[in-house]
Every structure is written in C-alpha cells, then in structure tokens.
Design brief:
The protein contains 1 helix and 10 strands. It has 181 residues and is mainly β. The chain is elongated and about 50 Å long.
Length: 181
C-alpha cells in the first residue's frame, strides 16, 4: 500500500511540475473568491462505508451502492471550504445495512488547475458497534469545460482514524464532475 501511495504522490508531483500555466489569474474565475462549487465523485479501487460519492458494486450475492454530493464555497481565490453528504446501502444476502455519511474539509486549486484536498469523513450506521472515520488526502487535475463545468480526475487516500473499525487505509482513483457558479 505504501508503494502505491508513493507512486500516486510521484504522479501528482510530475503533474504539478509539468503544468504549463502562465500568470496567477484563476481559470476564467471558476475558482475565484465568492464562487460556489457542487461536485459528484465516482471512486474506483475500493469502497468504504463512509462515502459521499456515487458508486455501485455487485459481485454474486453482495451488492453495495452510494449516492452523495459535496458542496463548497471559495473563501479566497482557489481555496474552498467543503461539506458533503451521502447515503448508501450494503446487502450480502443475509445482512442489509444502510449508511449515512458526512464530510467536511478544504480544497485548494494550485495554479487554479490542480485540486488538492484534505478532509474528515465519517459515517453512521444503525446498530453498528463501531462507525468508521477517515482523514482523506486527494489531488488531481481540473479540466474546465467552459465557464461552469469541470471534470477532475484524481487520486485519493483515506487514512482510517478508527482502529476498532479498521486499521486499513483506502486508496482510490476518482473522477469528479463539478459545477462552478
């Protein structure tokens, strides 16, 4: 897992070093102070019960799905404070569990193109002995498709904060879709 995480950091560093942005102005103002951000993320590479993204997985009798959104407000150019909510379910044929997830954090757009995020994510599951919580780190690249839309492929690592729930962290590849207004 450490090798994968180091590879992800190396790719992010390469992406940052090869970015060809001149000047310090934001990309058409999408990340300017006072703007709002609404995003939906899809995640590949593992699912966890504290998720504010969109996913569906099914294998044999086991299925799991989640739907959620994140929103944010740019308190200064390129820096947004964010919050997210999600709802999902897990069914393995004998157990059917519903989960409510929440997220709070910040997202900074380096040179207005490279989103880097830090957040706390947790969930609440009815009748669960332990609920998970994670410290998430993410980075990617924002591809702006006009004044109000961006696609943000990226990498994310969720570090487990609750050893009673799980000691394992989770590495994911995300594709985010964002509205800026």
């Amino acid at each position: 897992m450490k090798k994968v995480f180091l590879l992800a950091l190396a790719l992010i560093a390469f992406n940052f070093a090869s970015a060809q942005e001149e000047g310090s102005s934001t990309a058409s103002g999408q990340t300017a102070k006072g703007k709002w951000l609404i995003e939906a993320n899809t995640g590949f590479g593992g699912a966890h019960t504290a998720d504010t993204g969109i996913r569906f997985m099914s294998q044999g009798d086991v299925s799991s799905w989640n739907i959620g959104l994140d929103g944010g407000y740019f308190i200064m150019d390129d820096l947004a404070l964010k919050a997210g909510l999600g709802y999902g379910a897990f069914d393995n044929g004998t157990t059917d569990t519903n989960t409510f997830s929440y997220k709070i954090g910040a997202k900074y757009y380096v040179i207005s193109k490279i989103p880097v995020s830090l957040d706390y994510t947790g969930s609440s599951t009815k009748d669960a002995v332990e609920d998970p919580s994670y410290l998430g780190f993410g980075a990617g690249y924002a591809i702006f498709l006009g004044e109000n839309v961006s696609i943000e492929p990226g990498l994310r690592y969720n570090l487990s904060l609750n050893d009673d729930f799980t000691e394992d962290g989770l590495f994911r590849i995300n594709i985010g879709f964002a509205l800026h207004f």
